Amino acid sequence: MQDFTPGDIRFSPQDIAEALGEHPPTEQQAEVIASPLTPRLVVAGAGSGKTTTMSDRVTWLVANGLVRPEEILGVTFTRKAAGELSQRIATKIRRLRSTGLLAEPEEDEDAPGAVQEPTVSTYHSYANSLVRSYGLRLGIESDTVLLGQAQTWQLASDLVRGWDGPLPESVPAVDTLTGGLITLSSEASEHLVEARRIREFVQRFRVACQDVPPDGRKKSPGDKVVKALSRMEQTDVLAQLVERFHAVKRQESALDYGDLLSLAARIVRVDPHARTVERDRFKVVLLDEFQDTSHAQLALFSGLYGDGHCVMAVGDPQQSIYGFRGASSGQLFSFVENFPLRGADGHSRYAPTSFLTTAWRNSLAVLDVANAVAAPLRTAPSWSRSAASVEVPPLDPAPGAVRGRVRVSRYLTDTEEAQATAGLIHEQRAAHEGQPLEEMPTMAVLCRRRAQFEPLRLELEALDIPYEVVGLGGLLHTPEVSDVVAMLHVLTDPGRSDALARLLGGARWRLGARDLAALGDWAAELERRHERAARGEGPTPSETGAPGTRDTPTGEDAGDVVMADAVDGSSLIEALETLPRDGWVSSRGRSITPEGMRRLRSLLADVKALREVLGDELTTVIHEVETVLGLDIELAALPGEDPATARRNLDAFTDQAVQFSATTRTHDVAAFLAWLEAASREENGLDLPPSHTRHDAVQLLTVHASKGLEWDHVYVPGLNQDDFPSKNSSAWTGDAAKLPWPLRGDASQLPEWAPRVDDVRELEASFAEFTEDVAEHDLGEERRLAYVAFTRAKTLLELSGSVYRGTGKKPKAVSPFLEEARDMAEAATPGFEEGPWADGSEADGNPQLDTRVSALWPYDPLEGPTITRTSRDADGRLTETVLPPAHAGRRARAEAAAQAVREGGFPELRELSDEELASGPEGATVRRWRHEAELLLARRADPDRPRTVHMPSHVSASALVAMDSDPEGFVSGLRRPMPRKPGSAARAGTAFHTWVENFYGDAAIFDLDELPGADDHVDEDLDLPRLTETFRASPWATLQPFAIELPVETPVGSLTVRGRIDAVFRTQDGWELVDWKTGRVPHGRDLRQKSDQLALYRLAFARWQGVPVERVSAAFYYVAEDRVVRPHDLADEEQLERIVASIYRRGGAPSSDETPDTP
Q1: According to DSSP H, which parts of 1007-1083 are helical?
Q2: CB–CB of 684/649 below 8 Å?
Q3: Were 219 and a residue from 214, 328, 460, 484 both cysteine, which residue would form a disulfide, CB within 3.0 to 4.6 Å?
Q4: Helix ranges restricted to H, 791-879
Q5: Residue 558 — very low, low, confident or very high, per pLDDT cuts 50/70/90?
Q6: H-type helices in 464-571, by residue range?
Q7: How far apart are alpha carbons 518 and 516 in whole angstroms?
Q8: Beta-bridge partner residues of 445
Q9: Are strands 254-255 and 284-287 parallel, antiparallel or unpaired?
Q10: Cis peptide upstream of residue 725 (ω within 30 degrees of 0)
């Protein structure tokens, strides 16, 4: 694009600001606004007004006729930022027209009547538009699907579970491999590296380091080097998974966000037409937050708009805090290399750099400490190999900036620190009490990690200070959601004893400590029985003896058994599902009380009933769990909460389930739980920021989530060495899922391990040097994070740390960031204050080791526990603080209300007439209740009222069986869901199904007890070894299945029925479907009804394969009796539809406007 001459300029930046009634720009801003139409890097410090300057740049270009609005492209990271920038630009252009500085467009073909606006997009959205427009040239079809996070996880999880390739010597868990696959795939895409190159690199690297000669007595390198090289073996396997992952996505016509960027960058490389069209379309390009871009984004925009195009990149290297996401602080400086100026002689030179250094947000003191903590970042590290570097000047104060205040403190313990922080906040809020809310200072507590929130939250709560914990990660930690997740784990994972322990100790079942300990003993005994059976030993006398016989560990004296050893590897869930006989006593003399046994049996019945619905829609499963746990009633009765508001966390959790099901097209509970854990881990690394700052509440959030926001007062606790800065290393050698740094696009800006292979000592020394460089690099990353935290404050910044954190025995060193601030306070820097400073000499050790927080348990769930906290201060004095129950008196009020219901009202109101009650102080409530009661009674008395219930759109195969065997019960269950009598021993069936999958070498996901009711006669004491031997001797063991645990769904009438076929085999005539059963063979009508699920499987499979249903046979294999049952009168499609139609005749209503088919 041709540059302008001075004669082309009609309005200066100052002229436009005056015409719009705005503050005139500074000299630095005016230089950026009126800069030439050539590439330029703008380094904009925190709070320096970069967004205003960018919008003013667009306004100036348009007002002077240098470019039309629609010829401008602005790109940023988030939709919110894009929306704000777009709105600000559009507003200024409208105001330009209203002032007459910009004429309205003429009505001709070149200037349509509809006013054109600049295009403002996110980086990913722009890449998506390129792939949609030009992807067909690379074979990307228009119907290609963009995968969301849940879909990507599900696809990767399925791939890992079905992986048939090599595995590393130490095999990680499935979810760990899945997360590693996604991470490595994403990093490879972000840096435009093919999986093949990763494999070649790690293989060459390992070979080069494996046969290093010894040095004297030292024969091999140290443990750190050995572990680093061992991780590269896992990287090799993950790279193979990445190759398969990309192939599967191509086959499925799907892309994830990483693919989007790499494909867009590839389009730019191979399609000159795309480059020409985009350059002609956008004459001016603005790239916001450029310090957070990845290599693929840099390659994309430099490929499109390099070679002298008018591109302005704005960013701050000192705010580059998303290194874990692929960004690099050095990326910003590489702009001048990748977007060079083209001279008249054809030679290129680095693009110029401008600076915005006036901090409009911060007070003088806050600015001083921010500049101090960022000072080391202005010097390039010794290991940097980048040719381009820009010296970033410190921030300057705004004209008229107030002095402000920075206070530096260190406390003996983090509890004292939390108490002091809450106390300071309380003082500040008290000073503004009685004033308008908008005059209350906005306040935030910024933490390095979410783990710091809890003590701070408790102290804010103790002082009755309103607060908000920011971040969706907190959703999974709310009590009601945690209970639902715990139950889902119990239903799907026999190894989650922790989840069952939460439920047992909770308000629903309230099992006491004595019974919990006895249950733990029983779990340990079951584990020992399994071990003895595996060794071929017979049962002990306690296993066959009379009630009251004690269980004694084989070969050990009971007194020598440690509890942790006894329960190691045992499962509380198995213990629940195989409860001991009455009168059982453990080797420790413990037994389960009769009341405890009653509650355990009640929980077992609920668990089995819930397993019956695992094949239903995910939201249905969650609703059933919520009902069984009593959460619907508990939340509706929560004191001081509106019922709708009280459900907000559960409703948000259900929304997550809806999103997962909609995007993955699966209702698998185990997959949903795995995705939740992965999403939670990712969210903990990058919290979502709050929608706005608040005057009415203190906001607790991580530093990462605070970027781009500002508060009047900011508190930064936890400034201890190894906490902030964190001690976690970012080295690629420490994580197999990380892309090796030498392969990254920004490798020259990262430390390098150049192994010296002369001998093992040299190899060790080279790794140690690399480790030191990484530590320096990581400290720089943490320093940027501290800079972001400090610059969020306008007038007050409280910095603090503690000698001891938690119950750690070793004192914490002072964070270098806190030390630097303290040096400024000791130097009497204006605006700095020294608060209390503990150096650890006040106490011989951590006084929190003597801190005890106790409560009587189990406690009344209606009121909550009485909490007693005993602690020792630095002088050795013991103090005891007693916190009463949060809802003290609730039990008495509830019992008084129940008594009033039984007796016809409260004593003082019992004799009043309805009219007197309706005209009393609570008259409005009484009248509303009476009206509602009259409506309900009238509906009940109406003989013609329809007794219908809405049918779900999807049901499980087990529900189809229930429709036929107990239609009235099925409709009743839909009308009012209640826990149902269990129909199988789920643990037994699960164990055998898992063994069969391993036998066939298939690790498919399946829903536990997905088709209940078929194993009604299963033996509680499942003899798994006998069943496996029977199976090995059966004809099925010699056959190769076509599929194992095959999910199917098919319409039956107006319903869609889902199920999962245990095994599919090819036969000479077609196919045979088999359902494994661990119970006894049913007979007569019971067998016929249970055969409906085989009929459903046969119909679904035939439709899926497109073969006549006659070519598909089906059978039950009852392993315990070694008997194959092949029903000869399986229901056909018409008969299955008749079952569904009968439900509608009994009161089922369609879930849509369609009328159900009738026979």
Answers
A1: 1024-1032
A2: no
A3: 214
A4: 816-826
A5: very low
A6: 479-492, 497-504, 513-534, 541-544, 563-567
A7: 5
A8: 700, 715
A9: unpaired
A10: yes
Which amino acid would we find at residue 559? G
Contacts of 1053 (CB under 8 A, 6+ apart): 1136, 1137, 1140, 1141, 1156, 1157
Buried b or exposed e, range 577-591, using 16+ CB within 10 angstroms: bbbbeeebbbbbebb
Tell me how far apart the alpha carbons of residues 44 and 1093 are, in angstroms, rounded to a whole number: 66
* 3-class DSSP assignment, residue 111: strand
Q: In this structure, what are the phi and psi dihedrals at residue 812, rounded to the nearest 5 degrees? A: -90, 140
Pairwise CA distance, residues 755 & 739, whole Å = 18
- What totals of helices (H) and strands (E) does the chain contain, helices first? 40, 30
| Contact call for residues 412 and 872 (beta carbons, < 8 A) | no
For the residues 688-692, what does the mean pLDDT come to?
56
Q: Which of 61, 52, 63, 59 has the alpha carbon at shortest distance from 25? A: 52
Q: Which residues pair with 76 in a beta bridge?
A: 122
The angle that helices 174-190 and 149-161 make with each other, rounded to 10 degrees, is: 120
Type and span of the H or E element at 257: helix 257-270
Match 């610059």 to its residue by tokens: 791
pLDDT tens, residue by residue, 246-280: 999 988 888 888 888 899 999 999 999 999 999 99
**8 Å CB contact between 429 and 856:** no
Q: For the full predicted model, state whether its pTM sits above 0.90.
A: no
Run of H or E residues at 777: helix 760-790
How far apart, in whole angstroms, are the C-alpha atoms of residue 1157 and residue 917? Answer: 53
Query: Under a CB-based contact definition with an 8 Å cutoff, are residues 1052 and 1135 in contact?
Result: no
Contacts by residues 646-651 (CB-CB < 8 Å, ≥ 24 positions apart): 649/475, 649/478, 649/480, 649/481, 650/480, 650/481, 650/484, 650/626
Q: What type of residue sits at position 908?
A: E
Question: Within 13 Å of residue 244, how many CA atoms lie on the same side as its CB?
Answer: 20
Six-digit token string for 1075: 């359902």
DSSP one-letter string for 329-342: GGGTTTHHHHS-EE
pLDDT in tens, 387-409: 767 788 999 999 999 999 999 99
**588-624 confidence digits (pLDDT tens):** 899 999 999 999 999 999 999 999 888 888 888 998 9
**What's the first-to-final CA gap in the chain, in angstroms?**
73
Residue type, 454: E
Phi then psi for residue 803, to 5 deg, are -70, -40
Count of beta carbons in the 10 Å neighbourhood of residue 927: 14
Which residue, among 221, 269, 245, has the nearest Cα to 165 in the 3D structure? 245
Tokens 């076929």 correspond to: 1061
Beta bridge mates, 859: none
Which helix H or strand E contains 356, and what residues bound it? strand 353-356
Is 874 exposed, middle or buried, given 0-12, 13-18 or 19+ CB atoms closer than 10 A? Answer: middle
Q: Hunting for tokens 């079951």 — which residue is that?
A: 526
Please say whether the beta carbons of 646 and 636 come within 8 A: yes
**What DSSP line would sit under 168-225, residue for residue?**
-SSPPPHHHHHHHHHHHHHHHHHTT--HHHHHHHHHHHHHHHHTPPPBTTB-S--HHH
- If you write DSSP's letter for every residue of 947-965 in order, what string do you get? --EEPPSEEEHHHHHHHHH
Query: Taking each helix axis from N to C terminus, what angle separates 669-685 and 648-664, rounded to the nearest 10 degrees?
Result: 110
CA distance 957 to 46: 59
CB atoms within 10 A of CB 1003: 15
Alpha carbon 847 to its chain's center? 36
Dig out the tokens for 59 from the structure.
Answer: 């306004």
Which secondary structure element, helix H or strand E, spans residue 41, and what is its range?
strand 40-44
Residue range 327-380, pLDDT digits in tens: 666 778 889 889 998 877 778 888 999 999 999 999 999 999 999 999 999 888
